[in-house]
Amino acid sequence: MEFVSAVSDNTTVILSIILGAAVLVISYVINLKAKEENVQSLETDTIAPKEAVDHATTSKHKKKHQNEKWNQKLSKQTYTHSWMVTSLKGHTGQVTDIDFSPNGKFLVTCAEDRAVFIWSTKDFASKEHKNMRHNIEFDHASHICWSPDSKAFVINRAAENVLEVYKVTRRTDGWISAVSKAITFPKQFSEEMVGIGVAVSGRYIMSCSAANQLVVWDLKGAVLATVDTCLLHTYRAKVSPCGRFIVASGFAPDVKVWEVVFARTGEFK
């Protein structure tokens, strides 16, 4: 009996040792597998940003190449039309407005590059285009129009939203010798200007803002009248060729027309 009991105890001990060893082996295998997965995860995290950077760099270079290719195409393209006389080059920014002088001798252009160019219309068909450049100080012109006698032009300064009149001095041969600022009108508008015009009679200047404020000025910058266009939002305002009417259009489905009347003595009514 003692022998059987001893054998039974030994068997229990051996089974316990085997079971403990099996548990240790399984634990070791599980830990080893977990370490391998962590190493793989770290390698993936390290490689992924590099791949993302490489992809971003490739996309950037590809976009730059496409832009360069498009610019090359634009530079090689030449627009042609049976009516086209020439293409005037000089501005380096978006051209905001243009106007022919009433005498037909000049074209004035203004752009976001702060420059105002006066071009000779008789040179349109020539290889070289005669022009006079004048820079607007600390601003650019959003609108521009000639005076009826072609001896001055009016601009709206885009940032300040004020009108300025510039005098054009000519030489004996008729070409322009100088452009100089004559007067700056007082500020009346806080919103974007949508239209300016000079009456053919030279009696008044009109300016209008997007905020429905239309102002009639005399040539010295004094306000003759202020009108609410009642269009909710004004898009355009013009002076008629005869100088008798001012017209405005906007968000509302109406076109408003006003008659500008002066007495025989020249006084504004």
From TrEMBL:
<dbReference type="Pfam" id="PF00400">
    <property type="entry name" value="WD40"/>
</dbReference>
<feature type="transmembrane region" description="Helical">
    <location>
        <begin position="12"/>
        <end position="30"/>
    </location>
</feature>
<dbReference type="GO" id="GO:0005783">
    <property type="term" value="C:endoplasmic reticulum"/>
</dbReference>
<feature type="repeat" description="WD">
    <location>
        <begin position="88"/>
        <end position="120"/>
    </location>
</feature>
<dbReference type="GO" id="GO:0030968">
    <property type="term" value="P:endoplasmic reticulum unfolded protein response"/>
</dbReference>
<dbReference type="InterPro" id="IPR015943">
    <property type="entry name" value="WD40/YVTN_repeat-like_dom_sf"/>
</dbReference>
<dbReference type="InterPro" id="IPR042410">
    <property type="entry name" value="WBSCR13"/>
</dbReference>
<dbReference type="InterPro" id="IPR001680">
    <property type="entry name" value="WD40_rpt"/>
</dbReference>
<keyword id="KW-0472">Membrane</keyword>
<protein>
    <submittedName>
        <fullName>Uncharacterized protein</fullName>
    </submittedName>
</protein>
<keyword id="KW-1133">Transmembrane helix</keyword>
<keyword id="KW-0853">WD repeat</keyword>
<keyword id="KW-0812">Transmembrane</keyword>
